[in-house]
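hey
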């Protein structure tokens, strides 16, 4: 056992819109774990601000609060959109290192990565899936995909910045508790609301429907209530981008280094591509809540939620294949006139050599990618006496990420045509490949790859009992206590690594004959034969592709449709689930956690607080596979070589003390002090993640990839938090807080070399190749920072808000912590009267380290987003809203070791939402 600035000036052209009447206007807000409040009827932006500040002020610990009306008056399309406006909270529009999109996906707190922030739903964990294949099998896990959580469901969000023993463990940096509405808390016996509208996405130029609805009923006695919510939302997405898929060095002593000594050890981009990503997202689901109150002392409830997202997508990337023709210095040298800056070959040209392939073009269609999340929870509250309250909860949650099919073709382009590049910092690079990218006349099939049958299941089952005994003696107010047991599993259930196949007249797969021109036996059909390439012509990238990115690079690029690719793959691939099972993509983890706590709540003259201790025991059983080459016990039959299943078991016990104190210095001035020890278990896929590989450019050179580490320990943090809050006027706040986190066994990234069977056109029968894998490792680190908040009404109808967060984090060896942005700030303003409202918000986040990708550092550059909401209340039962997202058309930029090593740049365009909301 182990104990343990961009400065933005923007003008928004006004158009008619509507005020959102948020669902919570008639619903009494749910209480939080932090405090109980008198009933407040929310009547607009101003009312929501006041209610949020009231909850924050009265809380016994350091919290931030967003109410439903606050969400409704901003263009918040998922819960993460709302959270990004809170001091100390940052968001990312990518699940990992796949590059950002136009919707926020992950949430993190106080300069840490998303895995250290826990997301709760009504106080319990929620299982989640990812739609992107690399996030289904890569190093992701504990963080929740907020693309599955529409904001319409929310009554209140409580962000816990300091810990308490009564909170479920799992958030080192803090936790986000998403609280839904309860049917017995509505003022009216019957409430019906609906929102019907559309979203226009300007980059794909598509308009699609949006719907959400709510029905709530309760009886006259207030003893039985039923709430039903539903949502159905469609949206098209297009992302224009340029990607540089990693960097490697010219080896000292190589032919290129000997002929050009100044190039020895110099970094160069492995691939530079024109990337077009298109997707259709369809999010459907709902929430059901039933409450029964058979007696005044007993309340029973059942709460169920489901969100299903279809996310079919098509990704194309036309690439200059530098790693192939430069090959770490064993290949072709650049022409004279090249430029080295900051240790990087930032400009180079290469003459065409007959027979040399200078480009590679990937077309990857995932027509049925999807993700879902659901839970059902039963709860009871019983007050057997005036001095005792007991609560119980039992539930299960499931999440799934699936990619059943990847239809793929990888084409050799620019054969004998030469190429070159010029890097322009984090802006778009200038680059070219000889030939005509608008036509496929000179291109040949290189390979067919891609996992099929990918399905990753995430599941948690839990039960807990909580109690509170009211002491009311001296400074002792009450004693809280409880126990909790949970089982969590995450499993990769399929990974069929398809490859090209020869087919006989009956469509059966036959062995390759590598001596034939197209590698197939005489009398059979080959995918490498141009006569068998997809028919029906081809299309080209949109005429405005990458217009907003700058740079000079291929834009008018041909491609086959997803349907053509599907037909081609159906005919010419080997997807045998037995022989093509890629054991490196299979893994599983089962985790059992037990917890018990006591928390003493204290209250005195103008002060209050709590002290507590939580005991946590974690048992892990991790299953993954390793190469079995040479072992007599190895499992054979896979084309990817023999393998050995490995089971790793660990047990950890942790004690988590906490203390929170609040001081009412004056009627309007509050001070808080908190100290705690918190823990987070490593990502499921960090512990047992599938191995994801990028093949080597040539025999003898290493490939790259990522994988898991089953020996990771839980992350522990010792935390200190001090804050001062001045409520100088109604709906007004001036606050400052400082925080410090001492992280032990923080999960960082390291590298190790492993061997895997590798197949390609030049080595069709496969060979055992070295791969340098990026794997998670335990490390230590620290984060310290400051948060500043300002909120003030101006007159009766105007208001402004601003907040700023500074975070300084690093590992003990000086390396950057994943997710630490030194500077984050939000600036907002609103206007509201009885008919019209408008709100504007600007968010900025400075650069941060995002981890390793393809064995190369991966940083995201500074980002900023401008959003606006306009509304008009036409009648008591009809309101209309017009919301705008990404109005400044932000460019998402990434780089490697420094800004002379760009990794990618993307633009997703703006989105406009028009909605008609009906209330009965």
């Amino acid at each position: 056992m182990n104990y343990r600035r961009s400065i933005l000036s923007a003008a928004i052209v006004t158009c008619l819109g509507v005020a959102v009447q948020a669902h919570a206007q008639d619903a009494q807000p749910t209480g939080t774990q932090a405090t109980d409040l008198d009933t407040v009827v929310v009547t607009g932006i101003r009312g929501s601000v006041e209610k949020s500040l009231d909850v924050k002020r009265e809380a016994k610990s350091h919290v931030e609060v967003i109410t439903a009306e606050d969400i409704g008056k901003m263009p918040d399309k998922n819960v993460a959109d709302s959270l990004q406006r809170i001091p100390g909270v940052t968001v990312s529009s990518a699940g990992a290192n796949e590059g950002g999109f136009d919707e926020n996906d992950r949430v993190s707190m106080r300069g840490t990565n998303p895995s250290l922030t826990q997301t709760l739903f009504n106080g319990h964990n929620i299982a989640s899936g990812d739609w992107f294949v690399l996030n289904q099998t890569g190093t992701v896990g504990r963080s929740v995909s907020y693309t599955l959580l529409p904001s319409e469901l929310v009554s209140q969000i409580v962000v816990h910045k300091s810990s308490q023993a009564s909170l479920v463990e799992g958030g080192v940096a803090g936790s986000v508790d998403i609280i839904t509405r309860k049917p017995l808390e509505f003022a009216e016996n019957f409430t019906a609301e609906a929102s019907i509208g559309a979203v226009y996405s300007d980059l794909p130029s598509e308009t699609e429907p949006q719907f959400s609805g709510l029905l709530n009923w309760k009886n006259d006695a207030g003893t039985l209530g039923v709430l039903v919510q539903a949502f159905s939302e469609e949206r098209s997405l297009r992302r224009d981008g340029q990607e540089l898929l990693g960097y490697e060095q010219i080896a000292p002593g190589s032919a290129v280094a000997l002929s050009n000594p100044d190039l020895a050890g110099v970094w160069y981009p492995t691939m530079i591509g024109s990337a077009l990503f298109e997707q259709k997202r369809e999010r459907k689901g709902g929430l059901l809540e039933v409450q029964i109150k058979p007696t005044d002392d007993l309340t029973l409830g059942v709460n169920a939620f489901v969100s299903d997202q279809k996310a079919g997508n098509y990704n194309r990337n036309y690439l200059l294949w530098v790693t192939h023709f430069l090959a770490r210095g064993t290949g072709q040298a650049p022409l004279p006139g090249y430029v080295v800056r900051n240790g990087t070959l930032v400009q180079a040209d290469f003459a065409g050599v007959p027979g040399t392939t200078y480009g590679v073009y990937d077309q990857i269609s995932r027509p049925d990618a999807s993700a879902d999340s659901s839970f059902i929870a039963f709860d009871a509250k019983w007050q057997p006496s005036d001095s005792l309250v007991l609560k119980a909860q039992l539930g299960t949650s499931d999440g799934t990420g699936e990619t059943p099919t990847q239809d793929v073709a990888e084409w050799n382009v620019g054969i004998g045509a030469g190429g070159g590049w010029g890097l322009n910092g984090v802006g778009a690079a200038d680059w070219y490949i000889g030939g005509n990218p608008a036509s496929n006349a000179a291109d040949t099939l290189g390979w067919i790859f891609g996992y099929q049958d990918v399905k990753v299941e995430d599941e948690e089952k839990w039960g807990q009992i909580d109690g509170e005994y009211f002491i009311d003696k001296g400074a002792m107010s009450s004693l809280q206590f409880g126990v909790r047991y949970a089982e969590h599993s995450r499993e990769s259930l399929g990974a069929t690594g398809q490859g090209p196949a020869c087919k006989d007249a009956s469509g059966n797969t036959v062995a390759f004959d590598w001596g034939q021109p197209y590698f197939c036996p005489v009398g059979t059909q080959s995918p490498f034969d141009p006569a068998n390439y997809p028919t029906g012509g081809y299309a080209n990238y949109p005429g405005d592709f990458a217009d907003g990115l700058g740079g000079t690079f291929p834009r008018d690029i041909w491609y086959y449709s997803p349907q053509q690719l599907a037909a081609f793959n159906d005919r010419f691939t080997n997807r045998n689930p037995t022989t093509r099972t890629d054991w490196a993509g299979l893994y599983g983890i089962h985790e059992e956690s037990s917890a018990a706590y006591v928390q003493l709540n204290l209250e005195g003259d103008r002060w209050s607080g709590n002290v507590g201790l939580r005991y946590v025991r974690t048992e892990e059983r991790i299953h993954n596979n390793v190469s079995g080459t040479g072992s007599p016990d190895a499992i054979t039959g896979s084309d990817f070589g023999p393998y050995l299943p490995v089971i790793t078991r660990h047990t950890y016990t942790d004690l988590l003390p906490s203390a929170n104190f609040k001081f009412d210095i004056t009627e309007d001035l509050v001070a808080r002090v908190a100290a705690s020890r918190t823990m987070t278990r490593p990502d499921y896929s960090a512990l047992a993640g599938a191995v994801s590989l990028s093949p080597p450019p040539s025999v003898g050179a290493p490939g790259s990839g990522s994988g898991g580490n089953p020996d990771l320990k839980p992350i522990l943090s010792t935390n200190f938090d001090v804050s001062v809050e001045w409520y100088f006027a109604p709906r007004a706040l001036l606050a400052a807080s400082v925080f410090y986190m001492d992280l032990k066994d923080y999960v960082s990234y390291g590298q190790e070399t492993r061997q895997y069977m590798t197949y390609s056109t030049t080595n069709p029968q496969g060979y055992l190749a070295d791969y340098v894998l990026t794997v998670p490792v335990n490390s230590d680190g620290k984060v310290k920072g400051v948060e500043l908040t300002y909120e003030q009404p101006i007159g009766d109808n105007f208001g402004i808000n601003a907040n700023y967060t500074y975070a300084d984090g690093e590992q003990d060896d000086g390396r950057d912590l994943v997710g630490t942005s030194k500077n984050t700030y939000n600036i907002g303003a609103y206007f509201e009267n009885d008919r019209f409202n408008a709100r504007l918000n600007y968010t900025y986040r400075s650069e941060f380290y995002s981890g390793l990708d393809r064995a190369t550092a991966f940083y995201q550059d500074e980002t900023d987003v401008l959003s606006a909401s306009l509304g008009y209340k036409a009648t008591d039962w009809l309101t209309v809203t017009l919301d705008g997202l990404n109005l400044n058309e932000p460019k998402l930029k990434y780089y490697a070791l420094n800004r002379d090593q760009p990794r990618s740049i993307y633009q997703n365009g703006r989105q406009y939402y028009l909605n008609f909301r009906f209330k009965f």
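Helices lie at 45-58, 68-72, 79-83, 133-137, 255-259, 322-325, 562-572, 684-688. The mean pLDDT is 89.
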